[in-house]
Protein: Putative integrase/recombinase y4rC
Organism: Nostocoides japonicum T1-X7
Amino acid sequence: MMSDLAPLLQRFFTDKLDRHLNASPHTKAAYADTFRLLLTYAQQATGIAPSALTLADLDADLIGGFLQHLETDRGNSAATRNARRAALRSFFGYASYRAPDAIATISQVLAIPAKRTKTTLVSFLTAAEAEALIAAPDTRTWLGRRDRLLLHLGVQTGLRVSELVSLRVGDLQIGPHSQLECVGKGRKQRVIPLQKNAVQLVTAWLSELPSAPDGSLFPTSTGSPLTRAAVGKLVARHVHAAAEQCPSLAGKNITPHTLRHTCAMSLLHAGIDTASIALWLGHANIQTTQIYLHADLELKRRTLERVAAVDERPPARYQASDALIAFLKNR
């Protein structure tokens, strides 16, 4: 029997992800990685080559086993498992309209629930920690000046690391109202104003780069754009250096995304409402921004100070009347 999976999976990428959703390269790479892992697991479990697998072979038992394999054998977190599951659900939802003969198998796969994850408070830097991190790169070197600007913009603009490394020289507008433009998740474009100190750093940095508008704002020494992995390494390196001046950094797990959280928390501390913060960060759903309210202990303390103190005496025990007791006994 000819495989119905291979052509369907190819159409999912070219038709749904490319043509209908206009998915980002990062999204398509994540989905492709999910299916490479799945097909490799399915081959080991069934002995069938990936190109010969059928949609019926990917039943709920196999998909459930694959998701469990991610956690037990690959050591993935529940959140990563759920992200892989979301990619699979997107494909099987697409397949449900194009492979009606396999609707029973598809329905069972779509019924596989997400795994509950532990909600943790977001990690962010205090003002002193952020200043120490930004000051860590050695600005006597070209790479140091590049890294300092990257860290500064990460904290001031709250861009995702993928948005930072995608910035081009032409995305910055320096003038009376300096700003940068970026394209974020869902191909949504947004404009972010720049503070005066950021403008000074940007202006100095642009003078060291070729004037081509499509040139990378944060290139490597060879001229190619920085990768997300490279940004992760340079953040870790500068955190280690900054910890000598600011020891509290050593006790935190700091990633490039921590810079984004730091920006959000600074906006919150400045009294900016969550709807405006959601627009600034490019959140599609304002509920995503609520995590910063839960993480802001200082905001909770200020809220508590506005609440009148309650009587510290223990409340008196309620004494029911005899008539009420009699009523309850007769129920």
